[in-house]
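Morning!

This is the sequence you dropped in the shared folder:
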Amino acid sequence: MVLRLNNNDFLRLRGARGVAIEVVDGRVWITEDGFRADSFLAAGGRYLVGGDGLVLVGAEATTEVRLVP
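The structure's back. C-alpha cells below.
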C-alpha cells in the first residue's frame, strides 16, 4: 500500500510490529513508542517497526510511503 502525505501530515500506526515503512519519495521522521531516538528517512530509506505501541510518521514535504507487511 502506498500512501501520500502532504507537508506536516502524520500517519499513526498501532500494533504494527514487523511492518516495514519505505519512503518512495520525499522525507519523513519516525518516532516509535518505547524507542529513544527518532529516525529520519529520505527516498529509498526503510524502517522496520519493532514494537506494538504507537508509531508516528511525519512528512517533511509532500511524501509517498509504502507499508509492507
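Headline: The radius of gyration is 11 Å.

More detail when I'm at my desk.
O.
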